[in-house]
C-alpha cells in the first residue's frame, strides 16, 4: 500500500546516467529480447558512421569477441576530443560517455548531417555496460579510459605517441540490465551489411571471433546493390527486367532504388541519415505519393485510365520492392524522430522534396512506352483483384459480425469491462486449459477464448480456406476489428491479445501458427504492440519443508538446473505438462496476475526477413524447411 504522506522528501531526482539504468526501455526499446541488446551495438556503429558520412573516416572495423558478450567498434575518424571542457572541467571524452545530451551534433559546425541527434547514444551504451573502454588516437598520442555502469573506473590515460587517428570503443553489456547478453553474429552481420549498402564506398569489416571468420562489406553502387540483394534474397525478378534509380544531391540528399515484381506484397525500406525507420514517416510518405502521382499523371496524359477500375496507391505499389534513403543536413532542418529508437520520421518538410523527385519517374515512363505498358497492365490487374477481394471480404465480415457483441462466438468468456484499454483477450488451446483460465482470470478485465487443437496454417493455406475455418473466424469475431485490408484497429475490443500455450514443443507450434495468422491477416495489430505471448512456467520447485519451504517457478530446463544448483534440503520438482494441469489459483499466480506475470511482446523488426522465415518454416515448399532443419539440427538437445 502507498504511504499516506507525500512530501518533498519523496521526490527523487535521477542524476547522471541513473535515468538510463532506471528506465532503459525509454532509450533502447527494451531489455527482455535481443532487439535492445543489439541496439547498443548500433549506437556505437552509428557514431562511426557519422564520422564517415561527413568525410572524416573511410573504414570501420567491428569485432564480436569469442565470449559473444563483448564488441569492439573502431574507426579511422578524427577521434573523440580529449581536451578539458572549459565549463565542466573534465575531458570531452568523459563528458560524452557519462552525460546525457552531450556531443558535437547539436549544430552543423562539426557534423553537416548525422544519425545521432540527441547526444545520448554513447552515454546510454556506457550506462548499460558492465565495462566500457574507450581508446582514442589524436593529437599525436593514444588516450584511453575505462568505465563501469556509466561511471569512470579509471582516469584518462595518455599513452604512446602515434600518427594514427580514430576512436575504438569496446563494451560488454550489463547482465544486471539484460536478461540475455549474447550477441548474434548473424544479426550483427545483417546490421553491418545494411550500413555498407547505405554508405556507398565506405568499407566495413566484421570480424566474428566466435566463428573465426572475417567479412568485408563495401558497395560502390550503394542502393542499387541493396535492391539487387533484396531481390536475390526473396527470389524475385524485376518486371520486364528493369530496376530504377533516382537521386537528388542538393539540400536534402535523396536516393531511391526500386522495381516492380510479380509478388503480391509491397516491400519499402526507408532510412534517414543512415538510420532505419521501420515505421516509415514523412520521407516514405513522399516516396509513395510522388510515385503514385507520376503513374497517374502518365495514365491521364495518355488517356490510359481503365474504365470501371479505380486505381488506389496500394494497387500501384503491389509487388514493388524499394529502398529510399534521405540525408538531411543540420543546416536544413533538425530531424524529429518518434522516440530515441528512431522508428519514424516526423519532419513534414522532408515530404515535398522526396515527392518531387519521385514524380520525375513519369519521364522514365515517357521514354520507355513498352515498359510503361507492362507496368500499367500489372497495376490494372492488381486493382481488379483487390476490388474482387474487397467485395468477398465485406461479405464474410457481414456473416461473422465482427463488431457487434451480440454476434460474439459462444465459447468466448468475455470480460465485464467495455473499455478496450483495460481489457485483454487470453487465447488458450483446449477446453481443459480454457476451463482453468476462465476460473482463474480477473473476470472484469480478462476474456478467454479457447481454441480446439492446432489452427489452420495461414501461410500455406489460401485466403478462401482461412475464411472457412471456424476457429479463425471465431478469433476475428472476438477481436472485433476485422482483418486484411478491412482491419480497423480503432474497433479492437482488447488492448492486449495474449497467446497462452503450453511450455512445450506443441505449445510453441500452436503459438507459431497464431503468430503466422496475425502476421499475414492482422499485421497492424502486431505493429501497434497489441500481441503478446504469456510465459507459463515449465516447473514448480519446492525447496525445504514447513514454514521454511521456498517455492520457485522456472520456465526452462536451464533455469531449473540453475535454481537447484548448490541447494540443500528436500527438493521437490513438479513438471507441468500443460496449462490445463494447473489449478485456477496457480494459473493466476504464475501466468495471469498482471502484477507478477511475465509476457513477451511480439514485434517485427525486419518485415522482409520475417516473411521469408514464415515462408521457409510454414510454406508449401518443404525443401527450404528441410534445409533449415539440417543446418540447425546440431543445436537440439534430445532426451533419449
Please compute the radius of gyration using only Cα atoms. 27 Å
Q: Choose one word for the global shape.
A: flat
CATH topology of the domain at 18-217: Heat Shock Protein 90
Q: Cα distance, first to last residue?
A: 51 Å
Helix content: 25-40%
Number of strands: 22
SS-derived structural category:
alpha+beta
What's the average pLDDT?
84
Largest sheet descriptor = 9 strands, mixed
CATH superfamily of the domain at 18-217: Histidine kinase-like ATPase, C-terminal domain
Tell me the strand percentage band.
Answer: 15-25%
Provide the CATH architecture of the domain at 18-217. Answer: 2-Layer Sandwich
Instruction: Name the CATH class of the domain at 18-217.
Output: Alpha Beta
Report low-confidence residues grouped into runs of 5 or more: 6-14, 104-112, 115-119, 396-406
> How many helix segments?
21
Question: How would the blueprint of this fold be written?
Answer:
Layout lengths: L17 H5 L2 H4 L5 H20 L5 E6 L5 E6 L16 H7 L22 H7 L1 E10 L2 E8 L2 E2 L4 E5 L4 E8 L11 H14 L4 E6 L4 E5 L5 H11 L10 E5 L4 E8 L6 E6 L2 E2 L5 H20 L11 H5 L2 E8 L23 H9 L1 H7 L1 H32 L23 E6 L1 H10 L5 E6 L11 H6 L1 H10 L16 E5 L4 H17 L1 H5 L3 E4 L4 E5 L6 E5 L2 H8 L6 E5 L8 H9 L6 E3 L5 H12 L3 H11 L8
Parallel strand pairs: 1-8, 12-14, 15-16, 15-17, 17-18
Antiparallel strand pairs: 1-2, 2-7, 3-4, 3-7, 4-5, 4-6, 8-9, 10-11, 11-14, 12-13, 18-22, 19-20, 19-21
Helix pairs in contact: 3-5, 3-6, 8-10, 8-11, 13-19
Describe the structure using short key phrases.
Heat Shock Protein 90, 21 helices, alpha+beta, Ribosomal Protein S5, domain 2
Amino acid at each position: 500500500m502507498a504511504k499516506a504522506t507525500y512530501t518533498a522528501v519523496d521526490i527523487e531526482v535521477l542524476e547522471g546516467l541513473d535515468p538510463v539504468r532506471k528506465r532503459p526501455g525509454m532509450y533502447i526499446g527494451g531489455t527482455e529480447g535481443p532487439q535492445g541488446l543489439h541496439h547498443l551495438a548500433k549506437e556505437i556503429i552509428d557514431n562511426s558512421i557519422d564520422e564517415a558520412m561527413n568525410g572524416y573516416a573511410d573504414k570501420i572495423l567491428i569485432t564480436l569477441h569469442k565470449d559473444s558478450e563483448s564488441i569492439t567498434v573502431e574507426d579511422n575518424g578524427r577521434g573523440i576530443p580529449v581536451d578539458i571542457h572549459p565549463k565542466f572541467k573534465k575531458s570531452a571524452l568523459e563528458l560524452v560517455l557519462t552525460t546525457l545530451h552531450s556531443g558535437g551534433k547539436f549544430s552543423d559546425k562539426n557534423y553537416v548531417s548525422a544519425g545521432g541527434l540527441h547526444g545520448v547514444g554513447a552515454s546510454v551504451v556506457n550506462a548499460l555496460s558492465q565495462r566500457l573502454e574507450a581508446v582514442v588516437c589524436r593529437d599525436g598520442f593514444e588516450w584511453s579510459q575505462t568505465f563501469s555502469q556509466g561511471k569512470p573506473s579509471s582516469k584518462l590515460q595518455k599513452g604512446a605517441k602515434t600518427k594514427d587517428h580514430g576512436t575504438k570503443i569496446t563494451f560488454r553489456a550489463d547482465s544486471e540490465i539484460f536478461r540475455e547478453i549474447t550477441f548474434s553474429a548473424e544479426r550483427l552481420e545483417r546490421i553491418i551489411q545494411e550500413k555498407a549498402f547505405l554508405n556507398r564506398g565506405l568499407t566495413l569489416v566484421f570480424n566474428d571471433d566466435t566463428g573465426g571468420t572475417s567479412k568485408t562489406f563495401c558497395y560502390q553502387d550503394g542502393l542499387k546493390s541493396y535492391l539487387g540483394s533484396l531481390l536475390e534474397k526473396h527470389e524475385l525478378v524485376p518486371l520486364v527486367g528493369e530496376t530504377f534509380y533516382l537521386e537528388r544531391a542538393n539540400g536534402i540528399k535523396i536516393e531511391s532504388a526500386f522495381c516492380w515484381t510479380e509478388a503480391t506484397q509491397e516491400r519499402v525500406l526507408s532510412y534517414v541519415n543512415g538510420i532505419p525507420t521501420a515505421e516509415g514517416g514523412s520521407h516514405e510518405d513522399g516516396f509513395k505519393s510522388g510515385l503514385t502521382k507520376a503513374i497517374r499523371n502518365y495514365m491521364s496524359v495518355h488517356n490510359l485510365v481503365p474504365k470501371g477500375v479505380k486505381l488506389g496507391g496500394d494497387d500501384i505499389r503491389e509487388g514493388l520492392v524499394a529502398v529510399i534513403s534521405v540525408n538531411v543536413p543540420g543546416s536544413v532542418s533538425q530531424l524529429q524522430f518518434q522516440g530515441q529508437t528512431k522508428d519514424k520520421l516526423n519532419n513534414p518538410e522532408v515530404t515535398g522534396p522526396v515527392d518531387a523527385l519521385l514524380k520525375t519517374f513519369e519521364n522514365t515512363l515517357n521514354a520507355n512506352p513498352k515498359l510503361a505498358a507492362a507496368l500499367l497492365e500489372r497495376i490494372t490487374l492488381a486493382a481488379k483483384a483487390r476490388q474482387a477481394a474487397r467485395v468477398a471480404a465485406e461479405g464474410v465480415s457481414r456473416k461473422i459480425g465482427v463488431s457487434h457483441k451480440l454476434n460474439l462466438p459462444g465459447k468466448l468468456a468475455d470480460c465485464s469491462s467495455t473499455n478496450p484499454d483495460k481489457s485483454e483477450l487470453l487465447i488458450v488451446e483446449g477446453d481443459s486449459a480454457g476451463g482453468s483460465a476462465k476460473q482463474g482470470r480477473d473476470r472484469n478485465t480478462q476474456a478467454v477464448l479457447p481454441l480446439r487443437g492446432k489452427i489452420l496454417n495461414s501461410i500455406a493455406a489460401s485466403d478462401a480456406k482461412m475464411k472457412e475455418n471456424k476457429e479463425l473466424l471465431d478469433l476475428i469475431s472476438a477481436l472485433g476489428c476485422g482483418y486484411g485490408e478491412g482491419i480497423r484497429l480503432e474497433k479492437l475490443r482488447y488492448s492486449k491479445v495474449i497467446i497462452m500455450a503450453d511450455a512445450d514443443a506443441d505449445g510453441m507450434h500452436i503459438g507459431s501458427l497464431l503468430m503466422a495468422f496475425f502476421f499475414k491477416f492482422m499485421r497492424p495489430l502486431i505493429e501497434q504492440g497489441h500481441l503478446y505471448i504469456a510465459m507459463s512456467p515449465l516447473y514448480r520447485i519446492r525447496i525445504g519443508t514447513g514454514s521454511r519451504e521456498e517455492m520457485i517457478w522456472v520456465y526452462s530446463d536451464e533455469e531449473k538446473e540453475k535454481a537447484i544448483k548448490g541447494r540443500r534440503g528436500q527438493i521437490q520438482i513438479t513438471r507441468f505438462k500443460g496449462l490445463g494441469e494447473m489449478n485456477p489459483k496457480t494459473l493466476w499466480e504464475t501466468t495471469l496476475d498482471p502484477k507478477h506475470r511475465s509476457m513477451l511482446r511480439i514485434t517485427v523488426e525486419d518485415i522482409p526477413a520475417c516473411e521469408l522465415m514464415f515462408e521457409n518454416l510454414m510454406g508449401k515448399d518443404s525443401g527450404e524447411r528441410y534445409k533449415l532443419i539440417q543446418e540447425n539440427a546440431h543445436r537440439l538437445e534430445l532426451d533419449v
